[in-house]
UniProtKB/TrEMBL annotation:
It holds the Pfam family CbbQ_C. Residues 37-171 form the ATPase dynein-related AAA domain. It comes from Halomonas rhizosphaerae. Belongs to the CbbQ/NirQ/NorQ/GpvN family. Gene3D superfamilies: P-loop containing nucleotide triphosphate hydrolases (3.40.50.300). InterPro entries: ATPase_dyneun-rel_AAA, CbbQ/NirQ/NorQ/GpvN, CbbQ_C, P-loop_NTPase. Keywords: ATP-binding, Nucleotide-binding. This is CbbQ/NirQ/NorQ/GpvN family protein. It comes from the Bacteria. Transmembrane segments: none annotated.
Length: 270
């Protein structure tokens, strides 16, 4: 599986749908124009990745997306020597490609990556905007149309996985949360094709389930899962079956917690 996914320049018709709830689009544009790195904070599934995809397409810039994980190293981002056709050749990683070619490099859940990734980021997040490639001896200067965007979920981190203040203070930062009920209803309706009035019931249910976060659940139900649920309902699946598959099973493996979730679902849909 490739480490990164790259989206080419998109026409207006191809811009991924995103419903703004504040000044986040204007803030992103200003950060891009002023060559400032951007940090997005917010719960899982609240729209951070979709927002970045939307803005990259809106600005007409390539998007290099990296889903960070425990085994992600600096070499995965910058590149490495690989054997190709009997020859050893240097192959750029997604971060290096973004710096060489211009574009937006998005590191999703950056705190999941190993610590050496932070070391690579630092020269790109100040006025130097440099990417040193020790293995090739290059020192790349980021072009004006390069932007570094990172995200993480502050509510799902522990002391061993958090961004140091010295790193956070290198970024312009924005906090994300789940959209207001009416906006979330419209998002779910548009993404799934389910009637808005039926999506409203799902959004009300989500509010009840999110109140359980920190008590029985580590994470509240995401907007993404609501879209999945609405999509299954629109396809003809019974509501309770769709809700169990999208709003219960993904949230917990504990039988008692699942029973409590189903009680809330029954209270909403009967």
């Amino acid at each position: 599986m490739p480490l990164s996914s790259v989206a080419a320049n998109a026409s207006e018709q191809e811009i991924p749908y995103y419903q703004s709830v504040g000044n986040e689009c204007a803030m992103f544009e200003q950060a891009f124009q002023q060559r400032l790195p951007l940090l997005l904070k917010g719960p899982t599934g609240c729209g951070k990745t979709r927002f970045v995809s939307h803005m990259a397409a809106k600005l007409g810039k390539p998007l290099f997306t990296v889903s960070c994980h425990d085994d992600l190293t600096a070499a995965d981002l910058t590149g490495r020597y690989l054997l190709q056709g009997g020859e050893t050749r240097w192959v750029d990683g997604p971060l290096t490609r973004a710096v060489r070619e211009g574009g937006i490099c998005y590191l999703d859940e950056v705190v999941e990556a190993r610590k050496d990734v932070t070391v690579v980021m630092h020269p790109l997040t100040d006025d130097r905007r440099l990417l040193p490639l020790e293995r090739t001896g290059e020192l790349l200067e980021a072009p004006d149309d390069f932007m570094l965007v990172v995200s993480y979920n502050p509510g799902y981190q522990h002391i061993l996985k958090s961004l140091k203040p010295s790193t956070r203070q290198r970024f312009v930062a924005m906090s994300f949360d789940f959209p207001p009920p009416q906006v979330e209803r419209d998002i779910v309706a548009r993404e799934s094709g389910l009637a808005p009035e039926r999506c409203a019931a799902l959004v009300n249910l989500a509010a009840s389930l999110r109140d359980m976060k920190g008590q029985d659940l580590e994470e509240g139900v995401s907007t993404r899962l609501l879209v999945y649920c609405a999509t299954l309902i629109q396809a003809g699946m019974p509501i309770l079956d769709a809700a169990r598959a999208t709003l219960v099973e993904p949230l917990s493996d504990d039988a008692d917690v699942q029973e409590g979730l189903m009680e809330a679902i029954h209270a909403t849909f009967g």
